[in-house]
Amino acid sequence: MAISASMVKELREMTGAGMMDCKKALTNTDGDMDKAVKWLRENGLAKAEKKAGRIAAEGIVAINVSDDKKTAAAVEVNSETDFVAKNEQFQSFVASVAKQAVQTDAKDIAAFMTEPWIEDSSVTVEENLKNMIAKIGENMNIRRFEKISVDQGLVVDYIHAGGKIGVMVAAETSNTGAEVVECLKNVAMQIAAMNPQYLSADDVSEEYKQEKLAELVAQAKKDPKNENKPENIIEKMVTGRLNKELKEICLTEQAYVKAENKENVAQYVASVAKAVGTDIKLVQFVRFETGEGLEKKEEDFAAEVAAQLG
Q: Could you list the pLDDT tens digit for every one of the 310 residues in the chain?
């Protein structure tokens, strides 16, 4: 059967595959559009498998907030290069992953990857990812997702530097007006900048505190000035340092970075709550930073050029 330009165009619009690949698919399936889509998918998966071993440590974080503002999900999707991370097609794909994440009941990434894709239930999330790898030509990875929600209140999100950092903050409150939203947006910006590990000191385990105290005591003992001091005295000396460190890693105890006075985040939130006549209780936050903890590819362009020159 003769393959027309309009058939190639239609298949290309349906799949996003290259023109020559579409022509080849139609030729191999005698012009059957459904079989051609399947042929491209199968061959796309083969291409994607070849790319799967390559390091994907760039990418972006995206957040989707439900219409009622009570639930939100953050996702991190990685690519090999920052160039692809800035690609509109890639960013659109990540936004769709976030949309899927806010609706999922999956408890982990493995279960999430086996779900039907939100925009085409004939494929799973993983199969659609592999199709995207084939289209874009780079290894990609849906690394993680997390959901937060509140029954009475709202979730506010903040994206920094085009998706390098994404933050969600959930608060219990009876007032979801502009002043409260602005307050929580400011808190989200604080989290993006200061990277707290805990919501408050109450969330820090006693085990962590004891381990940190022992570490500080050991450091103090190495100081010649403390050589003859009893351990209980040294412990009292370093308790202040421990409390200072806890303030740095606990959100509500951190100094509020936009404050003109010396108020901390808890005091800032309380001042806004008082001004609008409502309670605002911070209950949870999530901070994703693209590529954190991942090995990044070391580029040696001189060696690459030398290798190409033989």
A: 788 888 888 877 676 666 778 888 899 999 998 888 888 777 764 455 555 556 667 999 999 999 999 999 999 999 988 888 999 999 999 999 999 999 999 999 999 999 999 999 999 999 999 989 888 888 899 999 999 999 999 999 999 999 999 999 999 999 999 999 999 999 999 999 999 999 999 999 889 888 888 888 888 888 888 878 888 888 888 888 888 888 899 999 999 999 888 899 999 999 999 999 999 999 999 999 998 887 665 544 455 445 544 4
Q: How many CB atoms lie within 10 A of CB 16?
A: 16
CA dist 92 and 94 (Å) reads 5
CB 36 within 8 A of CB 9: no
pTM score over 0.90: no
Question: Do residues 139 and 133 touch, judged by C-beta distance below 8 A?
Answer: yes
Backbone angles phi, psi at 244, to 5 degrees: -65, -45
